Amino acid sequence: MTSRPTVVELADRLWRAEVDRTPVEPITETRPNLTLADAYAIQAYNVRRRVEAGRAIRGCRLGRTSQPRLDIFGVAEPDFGMLTDDMFVDDGDEVPVESLLQPRIVAAIGFVMAHDLAGPGVTTTDALTAVGGVLPVIEIVDSRIADWRVQLADTVADNASSGRVVLGTRVTPVPAVDLRLVGLLLYRNGAPVESGAGAAALGNPVRCLTWLAHRLGPPERGLRRGDIVLSGPLHRLVPVRPNDVYEAQFAHLGTVTVRFGSGEGVAA
């Protein structure tokens, strides 16, 4: 494991990048031997900072849940980041572009936890019965690493590139739909730009939930009643431009929309 002073130094670098809205060079360029455990330690340090500043953990997002992404990074499992209450945006609201660094859009399926869930030994049935329902989600992912030049450890340390989360308003019971077959279309300013389906997330989004429950099992916090858990991207990331309006239309689950501001006030 990397020493605690180094973890703090690298966490500070990412923290200042977000505060100053100025991306930094990949941390793996100066720390090429940074392990995944080191990266999660850096992530946890900055999540604790948010909590100590008055924020509350509201859930988790998963990344690298598609087979092509796993192949690119040469790994066998996803990664995850923590979502705090200040990351959530209401359906249809405007997000100031200048509040982000390098935002990109992706649609996901959101699980609303009705019961606590933590491993080991969590089954798909356990996961399904712990879920109160699912809803359509637009994720605004963001990177504190310049030009998205990320290795796996960069992404994990950067809280899995978490940015903002836009939740739809319609919650659908899980037994009412086969999540593997849920299709979606993503529109930018009224024109379709991406499509996807639930099966893009580990073959079945419920598998993402089960994996995370195991990963966050004791002594970690686990998944808790009221948490929102995001399935992982269901299509390629789409760069955001000022004045863009995005709408994700999901079969059976409904729609969710987000607007972006003009970007006035963005530093040159």
Summarize, please.
The protein is built from seven helices and 13 strands.
Question: What does this protein look like?
Answer:
With 268 residues, the chain is an alpha+beta fold. It contains seven helices and 13 strands. Helix content is 26%, strand content 28%. Strands 1, 2, 3, 5, 6, 7, 10 and 11 form an eight-stranded mixed beta sheet that branches. A five-stranded mixed beta sheet has the order 4-13-12-8-9, with no helix packed on it. Helix 1 (4-20) packs across helix 3 (36-52) and helix 5 (124-130) crosses helix 7 (205-215). The model has no long low-confidence stretch (mean pLDDT 92).
Q: How much is the average pLDDT?
A: 92
| Helix-strand category | alpha+beta
Largest sheet: 8 strands, mixed
Residue share in helix: 25-40%
Radius of gyration: 18 Å
Distance between the termini: 39 Å
Number of helices: 7
Number of strands: 13
Flag low-confidence runs. none
Which term fits the overall shape? globular
The SSE string, one letter per element, is HHHEHEEEEHEHEEEHEEEE
Strand content: 25-35%
How do the helices and strands line up, and which of them pair or pack?
Layout: H1 4-20, H2 27-30, H3 36-52, E1 57-63, H4 67-73, E2 79-84, E3 88-90, E4 94-95, E5 104-113, H5 124-130, E6 131-141, H6 152-157, E7 164-167, E8 183-188, E9 191-197, H7 205-215, E10 228-230, E11 238-239, E12 245-250, E13 254-260
Parallel strand pairs: 1-10, 3-7, 4-13
Antiparallel strand pairs: 1-2, 5-6, 5-10, 5-11, 6-7, 8-9, 8-12, 12-13
Helix pairs in contact: 1-3, 5-7
